[in-house]
Amino acid sequence: MIRPVVCLPDPILSRPAALVGPIGESARRLAADLLDTMRASSHSVGVAAPQIGIARRAFCIDVTGHRKASSCHGEVVLFDPVVLASGPSEVGREGCMSVPDLTGDVPRATSIVVRGTDVEGDLVTVEADGFEARALQHELDHLDGLLFLDRIVADDRVFRRRVYR
After folding, report:
1. Quick one: what percent of the chain has pLDDT higher than 90?
2. Whether residue 139 lies in the annotated active site
């Protein structure tokens, strides 16, 4: 089910999310809703549970076909993810469906290793670089109650979003 995306200043976006725990039917429904919501937006490469009003540690990403992607694992859904390792940082432009009118320059690790539970309840490890690493970190921030605006390099590095037609 496509869910409405929660926008700033909704307080759910600034609170750390609770663990999902064992994967059951409700977690699989959440995964399906995250994927449906991401797919419904032509410019989305990820959605976190707090963005659809659910304060749980879950997100999906998919950078397939994105011009900036070097690594690509296709559609990934992770529950209770943790960062195992990360590489050096690089500044790049980011936007967010929960902050629809703005983009900003944000430093992120250029590579990352994340472990979490998938929809089958299996522990999986995702090693990503470039744009996919950035997308993972962006969604991980949502689970910790952070937005890209909390990580911008300077106040003058926030911009009005371009209008796509």
Report:
1. 93
2. yes
